[in-house]
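Form 7-S
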Amino acid sequence: MAVDVRKVESAQDRQVFFEFPWKLYRNDPNWVPPLLSMRHDLLNRQKNPSWEYMEGDHFIAWRGAEAVGTITAFINHRHNEFHDEHIGWFGTFETIDDQEVASALLSTAAAWVKAQGYEAIRGPQSFTTHEECGLLVDGFLRPVILMPYNPPYYQKLVEGAGFTKAMDVYSFHLSRQRAMEVGTGDRLERLTKAVMKRNKVTIRPFDRHRRKEEFKLFKEIYNAAWEKNWGFVPMTPRELDALVNSLGTFFNPDFAFFADVDGQPAGFVLAIPDFNQVLQAAGPRPGTPEVVTLLKAAWHWKIRPIMDWARIPLMGVKTEFRNKGVDAALYHHVLQALLNDPMVQHSDSGWILEVNKDMVSIALSFGSTIYKTHRFYEQKC
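Output:
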């Protein structure tokens, strides 16, 4: 049957769109299902603060009565203002392994963007760089927390629809065994001691007794530290609050550090346990009350812990304090904290832009390997 792509309009459409990933990935052992409330908050325009400055529509691809793919076309007005671009985006891109379906979805999104008066479309991104973004093109393993996953065939389908690479981002893996073999901790300590002394860099742990003030400082540093990064858009106050609230669920103050240069706040780093391991074991799914899922998650999290991975999702240094070894010093302290926790056997540092040569070099030189690559694609409308 021919593919028919239609906008999501009815309550039944919304349910099909919401549940489609469970249908698509039901036999994929690597996929990690999100909590139903997490997916609801992502798609709900009142709950997700990013929709305050975005506009867009959701679409479903149908073959007869069967849903075979989904996509969202949207305009991120803050991105266009901040980067002086005139583009649209696509996200929530999911499809069966069928070029006709993928091309129909992507051409629908491009046509929607063009109809709004924009000249190019980029993605996938659902829906900002602070959320899941990029297409996995290498390293088809279980995703760590807050990272997207897709089957290998997505790359050929997106490129088959005429999209080309805009940017690659890397994820780095370092195992406890590898860190011990190459002496990662000792090598980083020797490097950072010298640069910290020379450049008056000090590193301090997160003060758990001043939690509110510490998160306020984190929010102040975050936007300033990332403002020059490709694709980054400063968070609104509501987005920062939402990020802090979501991270607070998994937050371990032993894995967070701040850097000062000559007494001035300069940077931060934050690692979190990989809650995706718990979610995968708990198996959230439509039709199962979330309280049941949460009870299963609590078992795998608190009673019989299974999380032996951690992710370093956030590290930033203000522009004026770069090239002073602050990034290496922060990296050393957070890795040492992870090594001090006997439960943690693996760490993920990602993502890092392929053009961020300094951070890529630091990660590689101390034993980490690039184990996943996500790619942003674009096309003229």
